[in-house]
Amino acid sequence: MKPRRPCWRCITGLVAVTFLVTGCIGISNKIADTVLANEVRFDDREPPHSPQSLAASADGVQHLGGQGQGLSCSLPPFAQALAFDKNVGEAPIALQMRQACAFHDYCYRHGNATYGYSQADCDFMLQQQAFRLCKFIKREASISQCETDARKVTVGVRLGGAGSFKRARALDDDKASTFFEFDPYPVRAGSYRVVRIAGAPRQWVRDGLLPKAAYHFDVRPSGSLVHILGWKPTGATVCTSFSLPASYNAMNGPPQVVRDGSGEDWFVWWKRTGLNETGGSFALLPAGRAMPADWVVAAGGWMPQPDTGQCEDRPAWRGDAAPPGPPLAFVTASLDLKFSEIHPVIGAGTPGVVRLIGLSIHSCVDGDASPCLVDVAFDTALRQLRNPAASPPRYRAMDPNCLETTGKPHDSCDRYRNYVGAPFVTVLAGEPALTWLRRGTGDGDGYDAGATVRRFTLGTTRAEPGRDLGELRLGAFPEAREPALVMHSATASPVFLSAVAGKQTFKLLAQQATPEGDAAAVAWACFGNADNAWLLRPPALVPDPYDAHRHYIVFSRARMDTALEVAVATLVDGACLGVHRHQPFQGFYTGFVAPDEMTAVAAAASKPGSEPGEQAREALGRFSERVRGGQLVLADVTGDGVPDLIQVAKIAEPQRIRMRTALLVGRIDASGLRFQSLNSPPP
Q1: pLDDT band at 270 (very low <50, low <70, confident <90, very high)
Q2: Are 160 and 199 in the same domain?
Q3: What is the mean pLDDT of residues 252-266?
Q4: How far is it, in rounded angstroms, from Cα 649 to Cα 488?
Q5: How many distinct structural domains can be found in the chain?
Q6: What are the C-alpha distances in Å from 538 to residues 263, 484, 489, 632?
Q7: First-to-last C-alpha distance (Å) of the chain
Q8: Is 526 a domain residue?
Q9: Do 202 and 156 share a structural domain?
Q10: Which ranges of 45-142 would DSSP assign to H, the alpha helix?
Q11: Across residues 581-598, what is the average pLDDT?
Q12: Which of 654, 655, 659 is nearest to 595 (CA)?
């Protein structure tokens, strides 16, 4: 159920009367500067990082966060006009600050479950990011003016979002925060946990375990505790644990999973020095072949941890001798390519090459403020950048707003609109390409109603700009349709898929991007009047490994009786063929119940809808945080190319830590994608 929003007619009416009586902009400045006076000041010009869906594997699965409520600044136009100065040709403040507001929306809905963020954390980061955006967009603006504008945005969104912050331990669906990894640099989190699915240690594979393992990273600023969990064909788990130190000169965080052209999974850390600069270094490690010495190279240290007592403790390197020669892992020298985020390239088929691509936030050509495609490729055999003699190339994605023909100064183009969300990565003819959305043309007209789709691939030589694949339009694509998933991204007309929540139910909307932007959205009836609860946990878009025309969108929800419910919609060439609803997987979360929660969970299962007592609510809240607020991963662990469903939980008990896993195996048959227990016979 969508959270009830405040009565804007009442709020804006009260604000308007106050402003008109006392002097609109002046009083709004005084209110904001008084209420939020002590924000930490940043005297730098680095923009904030973009919110994005961070993948748990290299399987090409897209996750849709946001719970179907759209991404925007929640500032009514009337309030914008009263509270903010607007120069001629300048975009509305809600468009200028949209990147920070999108992060704030994710933070309110997913931040508590994913990173332990509080409402105060989310509001603090909004003000911080709004300040950075102001300095990035308005180079001539004073620091004090940007501080005031950032405070006003924060006050406005706090009023507009009153009551919308969601908690991981909430028992009511409409108040629940759920896991969605959206922050590439969670420096404000005291600790958080994420799962990565990658190649299992080779000793385990030789012992007959499944070819992929779950790497559970428990991350703190001081370092990370890593649990590797693998599966026997019977479904029993094995595990091993170790800790990694943090580096003084880099932000600590989990790796990305990047697959090279030969199909091997590599962990790649981008060790950015800090948020106020774009420099750093890369560390790479082959997940399955890595020895302790490789973890030492990549992380700067390695220390084994005692077994958890939950699963069969099995050393990942039993009987393995360190291979001759240097370790397989390697770390690059410090470099600065002017990007904020970097994304794995999936499907670039060069054996032994690990590749990533990003979009620069600073120009790569003097006198031109166009963004640039940053191409980073590593030769894993030589343990270095593929062309160590030269810096990784950057290819200018020429922005019409930044060209001489517009008559505008180059430093006034609106490049900030390129970074509201992460770009979609595509492979065309073996080369990576980026697709991203921008809103508003000129002074921002129509930003809240439609979007422009920009598409670029690499230039043919280092000296040439990126190749423009043609600009497309999404004519009627309001902010409520973002975030979106993309299908057929390598074609001339990609399709953008949105889930939009109503008061009680949601709808799936698909819209094709065209040069004219006149394609209407198609509302798929395959889900009928499905409850909004299906959007609490991020739905996932899965490509069919055998049929490029077919996709599946997987929805899930956790129940307090330890059951997992799964629904799969089959999508073929822009049409929804219907939904296969599974019977609930009873007992999927049985192992996730801590001993002191068993009574409360059993009572909730036997008397659904009853009001628990205070102690039972606390116990159910912890269980809800672990299951509904936990990371449910769609990734291939069996090696057949079909994604499986995995969830991992860490349960603290007196004098020990238990790691629990639950696994459903994916199968594709004539009727589409299905899930079943590991040992179920094929249909």
Answers
A1: very high
A2: no
A3: 95
A4: 34
A5: 3
A6: 27, 11, 21, 9
A7: 36
A8: no
A9: no
A10: 77-83, 93-96, 98-106, 112-115, 119-137
A11: 90
A12: 654
| Alpha helices in 97-238, H assignment, sequence order | 98-106, 112-115, 119-137, 143-160, 202-206
| For residue 494, pLDDT beyond 90 | yes
C-alpha span between 184 and 109 (Å, rounded): 17
Q: Rg for the chain (alpha carbons), in Å?
A: 25
Q: Give SS3 for 47.
A: coil
Mean pLDDT of 499-512: 93
Task: Quote the pLDDT of residue 619.
Answer: 93
| Structural domain span for residue 41 | 8-173
Q: Is residue 424 part of a domain?
A: no
- d(CA 408, CA 316) in angstroms, rounded, equals 60
Q: 8-22 vs 24-35: helix axis angle to the nearest 10?
A: 110
Indicate if 286 and 242 belong to the same structural domain.
Answer: yes
Mean pLDDT of 199-214: 95
Same domain, 129 and 274: no
Type of residue at 208 = G
152 and 191 co-located in one domain: no
Residues facing 358 on adjacent strands: 342, 374
Point out the domain boundary residue: 307, 336, 365.
336
Task: Give CA–CA dist 465/314, Å, rounded.
Answer: 51
193 vs 213: CA distance, rounded Å: 16
Mean pLDDT of the chain: 86
Contact of 428 with 457, CB cutoff 8 Å: yes
3 state DSSP class of 163: coil
Residue 207: pLDDT band by 50, 70, 90 thresholds?
A: very high
Which range has the worst mean pLDDT, 76-80, 212-216, 342-346, 488-492?
Answer: 76-80
Helix (H, G, I), strand (E, B) or coil at 57: coil
Does 561 reside within a domain?
yes
The first and second tokens of residue 7, run together, are 């009565």
Note whether residue 305 is domain-resident: yes
Domain end: 336, 359, 381, which one? 336
In this structure, of 84-88, 217-221, 240-244, 528-532, the range with the lowest mean pLDDT score is: 84-88
User: Tokens 């979007």 — which residue?
Assistant: 451
Q: What pLDDT shows up at residue 98?
A: 92
Q: Taking each helix axis from N to C terminus, what angle separates 598-606 and 614-627, rounded to the nearest 10 degrees?
A: 90
Length of the chain: 683
Q: Judge if 168 and 202 occupy the same domain.
A: no
127 and 210 housed in the same domain: no
Closest by Cα among 193, 229, 163 to 11: 163
Q: Is the pLDDT of residue 152 over 50?
A: yes
Task: Give the integer Cα–Cα distance in Å for 286 and 28.
Answer: 54
pLDDT tens track for 645-679:
999 998 877 667 788 999 999 999 888 899 998 87
What DSSP element (H or E) covers 542? Answer: strand 540-543
